[in-house]
Amino acid sequence: MNNIRRILVAAMVFSALSVKAQFPYQNPNLSSEERAKDLISRLTLEEKASLMCDQSDPIPELGVKRFNWWSEALHGYANNDSVTVFPEPIGMAASFNDKLLYHIYDAVSDEARAKYHQWIRAGNENKRFLSLSVWTPNVNIFRDPRWGRGQETYGEDPYLTSRMGVAVVKGLQGPEDAKYRKLLACAKHYAVHSGPEWSRHELNLNNVNPRELYETYMPAFKALVQEADVRQVMCAYQRLDDEPCCGNTRLLQRILRDEWGFKYLVVSDCGAITDFFTTHNVSSDAVHAASKAVLSGTDVECVWENYPFKNLPEAVERDLIKEEDIDKSLMRVLVGRFDLGDFDNDSIVPWAQIPASVLNNEKHRQLALDIARQSMTLLQNRNNALPLSKKHKKIAVIGPNANDKPMLWGNYNGTPVRTISILDGIQTKIAADKILYDKACDLVEDKVTVSYFGQCSVDGKPGFKATYWNNPTREGDIVTTQQIVNPIKMTTAGQHEFASGVKLEGFSAIYETDFVPKVSEEIVFKGGATGYFELLVNGETIKKYNNWRTLSSRIPFKVEAGQKYKIQILYNQSNNWQANVEFDFGKEIDVDYTNLINKLKGVDDVIFVGGLSGNLEGEEMPVNYPGFKGGDRTNIELPSVQRNCLKALKEAGKKVIFVNCSGSAIALAPETESCDAILQAWYPGESGGLAVADVLFGDYNPSGKLPVTFYENSEKLGDFEDYSMKGKTYRYTTEALFPFGFGLSYTQFNIGEAKADKNSIQPNESVELSIPVSNVGQHSGTEILQVYIRKVNDMDGPLKSLRAYERVELAKGQTVNAKIVLPPSSFEFYDWSQRKMTVTKGEYEVYYGNSSKEADLKKIRITIL
Fold it and tell me: Where is the signal peptide (predicted)?
């Protein structure tokens, strides 16, 4: 575009009183496609490339604002404070309530809009984690319980994942007939992705046969594209059959666009294009990687720094790609922004009017409590150990997760206004003076740290000296200094400054002290941060990393008596994440349960709250503990320190109620012996503590069902990197301690004989089942009726596949006839002869009951003619 043309456009853009749009891209009455086409015609090649980066530069002379594509809304508007934090998706999946999920994500999108416009109207620019594009939901199949990110998914079943994912997208994006999208949701990570975290950047999957691809790994993505009209799809890191997913024309063109009809944008996982030439070695450099990605179908690139997509102009010069190819991708990118109303005045975008008062309002808090209650999954209740009486003289609440509020949030979370810990929740049922609380043990470590923080001093003052700068480099003018006398635990969550005058973003700090040990011994440093963290002793770096979450490292270090050790922590806030720093050090001593048992004399009932936390399982984590690697697990047993604690409690004659908090399945075979009751609580969000207490004390009758198989042990899990489904999930194995779909209630249900409106159908016909469900127990409750289908004589197919479910609420003594319609797609399986998913003639077994276990199911046969 010549300079005169640019000047004319700029004059129009900045005319404050202009009423009528001067150029088509500024006219809100035109379609997004028309506007995008016009704007593209006015851009330089360099500007086009910039707009295809997840952090897009502004173009002031054209009125194009800075835009960021990366925000998260996994279970609330992530990396923001004062938002509602719902349970992790794996917990919400246990509700089998996609209708409620729609309302939850409608609330999440309200809060995202309110937060975004509040930020922009304060004079700020769009930035990471404060945008209208949200990279949610994660609809990967949780095929292996060792995967640390499985907590972000809706479990191991393709149908349940599809139903939940569709509800999430519809809630986030708003009504389909609205002029503007509320948000742009994203189906991730496409495709065939579920760990391990440690090898995802170089892993090549070449043993996934077409049947497993289309029946297991693809259904949720297809459903989100065709049923929910999802506006973004994120391609994954690894290779599938030698091609990186973000450079895979089979995935991005033939399947996604040609077979499914997806017409919107594809975004890369962060750094995935860089992997082309650094780990996958399928491209020689950034120029080739960028052109390969765009030609394959990737439209937006995310990376921490040094965007390969900025090299697209050079790729055009070298004839590696045509400018028309770039325009094609950019068209999809800009249509997304126009669909959001990003180029229009807020006054004509209804979603921009959502007030900040919606943030964590009473309605949203109630939704968080409702879904947390419905996620509670009762796995064992020997001799009706639950519910507990509220008339206890004394009850013990112990365990590493009992009073841990951040644990309840899981990962990819925001920070709520208030969080009800499990201890807090129990205190709403029983007076505090009747509760004995003790942490009892650590999540993983079988030792307790005796803090030496109080033995430190600097410049004659006890503790650590903290020095702060309002820049990320620890240079220039010092803002303030302070003396810290207790173990460091700092956060900007809730808009809290680290110290007076220190900014909430872009600041840095040094924490330093001198320590002179009294004896020669091995001590441990324990600490971590969200942001840049570097621990030095006498000027030597002991630990260093830059991460998006606070990870507590355990660092052994030998000290000599009388020698002075200068301890320093270098920190800077980075990457738009809330700042956190934690640090303590001291001597470890062995856990001794004798003192704990002595404390519990006179107490019969013990609630032990343990399991895992987001500090142990999550995305590509640099901290490793025994049994954990890079955010994944190397085995699925409960950490031995907790297992031994539970055993000691049982041997002491206590009635043990185990509340297990985790984002994944744990092998609980020994716990079925040492515990009288087991409640799977997942990571239940801001109101999780109250939901747990409601179930424990009978104020809510649990109805959750497992969205994943709980295996007896780790022995038969096989190779983590083997994506073949053989022996994995309920669909390909019957070996389970607690099967998929299982969950107990405080009442009893009876499922009668099903009747089908017809037993023989054509391939395009539906079947309606009428199934009597009766509450024959002593309490009102909810049963989740499940319907599974298997094609008879299907030798290499799944044992059964979930194809329908229904929440049935019943009063004591009530019977209802549940009506379940099975559309033609319920009978769809992969047909090798046609090389596609289709309905074929033959006999089908339709199983129905309250779990996937054979003994919990009845069956009828349906013939497709």
Answer: 1-21
Count of Cβ atoms closer than 10 Å to residue 284 Cβ: 10
What does the alpha-carbon distance between residue 554 and residue 552 come to, in Å, rounded to a whole number?
Answer: 7
Q: Which residue has the tokens 């509450």?
A: 775
* pLDDT above 90: residue 625: no
Nearest to 309 by CA among 131, 53, 593: 53
In three-state secondary structure terms, 831 is strand
The verdict on whether 617 is a catalytic residue reads yes
Would the pLDDT of 5 be above 90? no
Q: How far is CA 229 from CA 69, 184, 343, in A?
A: 18, 10, 22
Among the listed residues 607, 593, 608, the one whose alpha carbon sits nearest the alpha carbon of residue 652: 593
Q: Find where tokens 């297992």 sit.
A: 643
Tokens of 483: 């003396």
Q: What is the mean pLDDT of residues 270-296?
A: 98
Instruction: Tell me the domains of the chain and their CATH numbers.
Output: 45-64+186-330 (3.20.20.300), 371-446+592-732 (3.40.50.1700), 447-590 (2.60.120.380), 749-864 (2.60.40.10)
| pLDDT tens column, 191-214 | 999 999 999 999 999 989 999 999
Extract the tokens encoding 344. Answer: 């229009």
- In sequence order, the 6+-apart residues with CB closer than 8 A to the CB of 319 are none
Query: What distance lies between CA 98 and its chain's CA centroid?
Result: 17
Which one-letter DSSP state was computed for residue 393?
S
Q: For 581, phi and psi rounded to 5 degrees? A: -140, 135
Q: Which pLDDT tens digit goes with each residue over 495-546? A: 678 988 899 889 999 999 999 999 999 999 998 888 899 999 999 999 988 8
- The three-class DSSP label of residue 74 is coil
More confident residue, 622 or 718: 718
* DSSP H or E stretch at residue 501: none
Q: pLDDT class for 683, splitting at 50, 70, 90?
A: very high
For residues 326 and 49, is the Cβ–Cβ distance under 8 A? yes
Element (H, E) at 540: strand 540-547
User: Which residues, 6 or more positions from 272, have their beta carbon under 8 angstroms from its beta carbon?
Assistant: 235, 236, 237, 244, 245, 246, 302
Q: Are strands 204-205 and 767-775 parallel, antiparallel or unpaired?
A: unpaired
| Owner of token pair 């109630």 | 366
Predicted local confidence at residue 383, as pLDDT: 96
Give the pLDDT confidence score for residue 366 in this predicted structure.
98
| Tokens (6 digits) for 550 | 């606070």
Please report the pLDDT score of residue 4 as a whole number. 43
DSSP one-letter string for 238-306: SEETTEEGGG-HIIIIIIIIIIT---SEEEE-TTHHHHHHHTS--SSSHHHHHHHHHHHT--BB--SSS
Tokens representing 753 are: 């004989």
Does the annotation mark 521 as catalytic? no
How does residue 783 score in pLDDT terms, banded at 50, 70 and 90?
A: very high
For residue range 135-156, list pLDDT tens digits in order. 999 999 999 999 999 999 999 9
CA–CA distance, 428 with 426 (Å, rounded to integer): 5
Contact (CB, 8 A) for 442 and 641? yes
Catalytic residue among 157, 299, 339, 617: 617
| CA separation for the pair 857, 849 (Å, rounded) | 4
Q: Would the CA dihedral through 802, 804, 807, 813 be positive or negative?
A: negative
| Helix H or strand E encompassing 149 | none
How buried is 538 (Cβ within 10 angstroms: 0-12 exposed, 13-18 middle, 19+ buried)? exposed
Other C-beta atoms within 10 Å of 3: how many? 7
State the first-to-last Cα distance of the chain, in angstroms, to the nearest integer. 64
- Cβ(108)–Cβ(393) under 8 Å? no
Q: What angle do CA 494, 497, 502 make, to 5 degrees?
A: 150
Residues 426 and 420: their CA atoms lie apart, in Å, by 10
Average pLDDT, integer, range 586-611: 93
Query: Which of the following is catalytic: 215, 269, 605, 619?
Result: 269
